[in-house]
């Protein structure tokens, strides 16, 4: 029953994510980036975010009416089936606002608290990352396997920054101490894509403080199914406090350095 359920949930998640991605790509005003600093432009993105979430929840509720929902834009339904959909209708909204391609639709399905499937659809890259628990991870038709752990000095490290000024200042301090120790640091603007990039090998490792469940739920499973380790502070899973993803060997080293630097607090 679990294999059948996973297959059903994954198929629905892929279709819902791709429908929302098409809506967002085709419905984005061409001049949105020109007015990116104007309140009206931000309002349009907010409206697109809300509309994308409604499209996803409506599609899924039609097919599985007893499931619950947790979404960035306020979707909160308990449900009675034990399955909960965790949805980020636009992960990377600032990128979307400015017309940068690194934004995604992220959908995960949990049952009794365990993530069974995860999908991250990146419309502007033509990529759909997907994973089912125990069945590996794929992007389109390609199987994903995390890269071999490099030395810390050769690590291409991804991260992100929060919106609050105090948090960003603290995050910059941590980055400043890490930069001399690694190959380089990237800030892509979408946690879901960053986690998938670890799975793909486009990043050696990734960490961030301040993520919500909808930011990492799908990408977490995709990275783990590709062979990465994903966690938070030592002994903890990924959380708002800290999320870390890397191949075995590098993960433990990065996690330890982040703990020493206090990357988990503002």
From TrEMBL:
Catalysed reactions, as listed in the record: a myo-inositol phosphate + H2O = myo-inositol + phosphate; L-histidinol phosphate + H2O = L-histidinol + phosphate
GO molecular function annotations of the record: histidinol-phosphatase activity; inositol monophosphate 1-phosphatase activity; metal ion binding
Pathway: Amino-acid biosynthesis; L-histidine biosynthesis; L-histidine from 5-phospho-alpha-D-ribose 1-diphosphate: step 8/9
Keywords, alphabetical: Hydrolase, Magnesium, Metal-binding
Swiss-Prot/TrEMBL cofactor(s): Mg(2+)
One of the GO BP terms on file: signal transduction
Species this chain originates from: Streptomyces boluensis
Entry-linked InterPro entries: IMPase (IPR033942), Inositol_monoP_metal-BS (IPR020583), Inositol_monophosphatase-like (IPR000760), Inositol_monophosphatase_CS (IPR020550)
Binding site for Mg(2+) 1: 72, 88, 91, 215
Name of the protein in question: Inositol-1-monophosphatase
PROSITE patterns, A to Z: IMP_1 (PS00629), IMP_2 (PS00630)
Protein family: Belongs to the inositol monophosphatase superfamily.
Binding site for Mg(2+) 2: 90
Cited CDD domains: IMPase
E.C. no: 3.1.3.25
Function of the molecule: Catalyzes the dephosphorylation of histidinol-phosphate to histidinol, the direct precursor of histidine.
